[in-house]
Amino acid sequence: MAPASSPPPICKHDVFPSFHGKDVRTNFLSHVLKELRSKGINSFIDDDMERSKLVGPELTEAIRGSRIAIVLLSRNYASSTWCLNELVEIINCREGFGQKVMPLFYDVDPTDVKKQTGDFGKVFRKTCKGKAKEDIQRWKCALTEVAQITGYHSTNWKTEAKMIEDIATEISNMLNLSAPSSDLDDLVGMESQMARMRPLLQLDSDEVRKMGIWGPPGIGKTTIARSLFNRHSQDFQLSVFIDNIKTKYAIPACSDDYSVKLYLQKQLMSQLTNETFVNISHLGVVKDRLKDKKVLVVLDDADHLVQLEAMAKETSWFGPGSRVIITTQDQRVLKASGINHIHEVNLPSHDEALQMFCMYAFDQSYPKDGFEELACEVMSLVGKLPLGLKVMGSYFRGMSEHYWIEALPRLKTHLDRDGEIARILKFSYDVLNDEDKRLFLHIACFFSGEPVDMVESCLEECFEDVRQGLRVLCEKSLISIEYRDIGMKKLLVQLGRQIMRKESVSEPGKHTFLNDASDIGEVLSDDKASNSNVIGINLEQNEEITSCTSERAFQRLSNLQFLRIHGYGINPLSMNYISRKLKVLICPTFPMSCFPSRFNPEFLVVLRMENSNLEKLWKDIKPLKNLKLMDLSYSFRLKELPDLSTATNLHVLNLTYCSSLVKLPSSIGNAINLRELDLNFCSSLVDLPSSMRNLRKLSNLGLMECSKLEVILDNISLESLENLDLSGCSLLKSNHESSINIQELDPWIGRISNICVLYLMGMKNLVSIPPLPDSILLIDASNCESLERLDWSFRNLCNHLYFPNCFKLNQEARDFIIQSSRYATFPGREVPQCFTYKSYGSFVTVKLNQMPLGKSTKFKACILCADGNEDQLKYLENTSLCCAITSGGNVFIAFNERVIGVMPGHLYTFVVEVETEEVTSTELLFDFDLLNSNSKTCEIKGCGVLQLLEVPLLSFGDDDEDFEPADKEI
Are residues 238 and 310 in the same domain? Predict the structure, then answer.
């Protein structure tokens, strides 16, 4: 048999017929070939070929060079060793190259062919007399194999004419399906998609594998699946691409599962075998027919579990090496079907999106001269969604620059002018239940881009289960959750807002949400109408209400709960009459110095007034029991905070760059649920109130550049604190200290038992750091120029220790940094002695005493950056530190991490973990490199490697053999 890995031959013929001449050449076969010619199908004809017992090179080439082999099995077919040898070669091509084979049983029973019985068997046995056992066995295997392939049996047709017509039609269809396609190969970004899927597909494995392609509507799932199918379908015995299952095979509401599954199996088998009439009497048919076949099945746009259960429930239904690909926007369908190999389709990069758009708009991969900015502007409106790029690119194709400029303002509010995008996207919305539809509209109209916690808090009383609803929308790819923020594609946002606006086009006051500036202006300037339907107003950035709004503009919006004002034109005094039901108020650049006196924040959950002119919020004590987030950052004029006695549920307080703020109210101690307190760059802040000792849930405290802060807290334990930033706090001292330039941190820091991150950047007079708890994961002491000592030790490895420009560190501190970190940076002039293998330059050879055991082996590596100048530093940001290892001729990347800033004259140490299976030799070549997008790199002066034989944690004590210094110094 031909090996499966053999490359497929170049096809010269459409069809190769194998037949016994005396039986069929002048009658049945001649009519078949004539019908094929009438359909433009090219068949190999051997009229002039000399017959011999063996299949010669010319005939072998003809068989291999044909897309389909027809085996016309007649009564005397087995009388010819020529025919039998042809058949063996055909079966080899089927198994080796995936050649299509169609058996035609002409006046013979397939069972007789399979078992070599009956008249067919008698003829075969006569032929076998005197032949070699090996030849006989090959013939038997080939006959058995071909008899099991679905084909045509002459007894099933009333007339030969009809049979021949059906044969020609099926061959034509098979050729159409098997014709190699490259129409999707050149699509932008397709190669990177294919590369990402290869590890999931494992096409070289005989395992039967199911894989999902998941993503939002319009992102290109079907296109990716189609490209994959076109590339690989010829590698399978049978293949089928069933497209648009959700629409074509919609499941009726009242149908029973069994009937639906029978129907879907019938569709699968019909398309897979190219048979129009397929009888499916039970659900075991697929398994019975396909269990020994290598098949490729693509189920496109599935949206119900029953679809997968009907057509691809078990991997045991298919033969070795089979692959089942399912595209869907509903991740739950994949999970429920037990599919663990899932390829998530993400938005293209900016460059890829621009190329996609330009291909549709200009028929080239870059903008035409003069259209560069216009193309980027349209692309930003679409949000890089491939469907939108296609529709908008096609819309602008051939249009003049003047037309583009005129059309852009209209597109900002009515992007999908012909409704083509909405028709596709709205399918996803329509299948939601009413509760989830309402949640989708809330997010599209107001909450896209907001933190999950905020959304859950604001909507918990509006929905039965907000968290479950968000999970449904996420699984259906209608939203995404990244870094705890809710994301929604721009086109989906616009779809939601269009749906909302259609509630009442002529009366915006009947809308639930208002997003259009003209609608907002109309509602707020109408002094008479009742607008109780409106619960949310979102005035986008740079939008302006041109109509005049009065002080009582909000008085008639009695149910207003969500208000975001990024634009202009709303009277700030209208806050006096805003609904007491208000839960979210987002109003950057608020112009007033204080809120109007009647403002009632009783139900307020979120208050964001960044970059405002506020000097104080309000005068009296206000009810703040529901408030969870207060953000007054960049309010440079803010001098005082209100009384926070009632803010017992406040979680986040952001006062970054409130540079006029002198103190915090003692009532902040009542905010017992406060998690994050950001006081970075509060340059007038002198001290912190002692009541802060009550903030036992505080996990993040930012005090960066609080340059006048003298005392933090003494003799207290902030038990939940995880992140503490003291960078630039040069005047810090304990209550009992009198020095104005801190040289030592107060020991209380060591008693913060859960602290994970400590920032000390720019504390230029700091000489030592006191003992710290084992919970520390990161310390950044950049530019602590006087730092000499580290008076602490860890039982566990600290993830990151940054000490750039700390030139006075003593040797004990430097050794400790190497020992205690997974990744570290500090000044140095030579590779430390502790590294067993050292070398000048960027590569070093490591010789292992024995092949590693276990799953992985760890090394501590080090590079020394050559000295440089200040001009060089600006090119070295966002550099990647890469380590490639060569073992036995194989090269693999063992470490590749981004370095925030490469510092000339500094050492970088890091742990490199190597999978044992990658190590094929006891000699390893470590090659280090610093890669930068500006093509500027810092020279690596030297490098070192130390093998960590003790996997859990290396001990760097004097008695540790792994920490012995090398003889050669650098």
Answer: yes
List the end-to-end C-alpha distance of the chain, in Å, as a whole number.
60
Among 505, 509, 532, which residue's Cα sits nearest to residue 520? 509
Q: Within this chain, do residues 834 and 902 fall inside the same structural domain, yes or no?
A: yes
What are the counts of helices (DSSP H) followed by strands (DSSP E) for the chain? 27, 35
Residue 925 β-bridge partners:
845, 886
What's the CA angle centered on 199, arms 196 and 204, to 5 degrees?
A: 130
On the question of pLDDT at 951 being above 50, the answer is no
Give the CATH number of the domain where residue 118 resides: 3.40.50.10140
Domain boundary among 500, 534, 558: 500
Whether 482 sits among the annotated catalytic residues: the reply is no
With contact defined as beta carbons under 8 Å apart, do 877 and 937 qualify?
Answer: no
Q: Which of 215, 18, 10, 23 is nearest to 104 (CA)?
A: 18
Kindly state whether residue 94 falls inside one of the protein's structural domains.
yes
User: 955 φ, ψ to 5°?
Assistant: -95, 125
Is residue 233 one of the residues assigned to a domain? yes
Pull the structure tokens for residue 541: 């950035």
The CA R_g of the chain, rounded to the nearest whole Å, is: 37
Q: State how far the alpha carbon of 646 is from the alpha carbons of 589, 622, 624, 643, in Å.
A: 26, 8, 5, 8
Structural domain including 49 reads 13-178
Tokens (6 digits) for 774: 């084992």
Task: Name the 3-class secondary structure at 928.
Answer: strand
831: left (phi over 0), alpha (psi -120 to 50) or beta: beta
Predicted pLDDT of residue 970: 36
User: Do 168 and 308 share a domain, yes or no?
Assistant: no
Q: Report pLDDT digits (tens) over 229-280.
A: 988 887 888 889 998 888 777 766 556 678 888 888 888 888 887 666 667 7
Q: Which of 35, 50, 86, 543 is catalytic?
A: 86
Give residue 485's identity as a one-letter amino acid code. D
DSSP 333-378: HHHHTT--EEEEPPPPPHHHHHHHHHHHHHSSSSPPTT-HHHHHHH
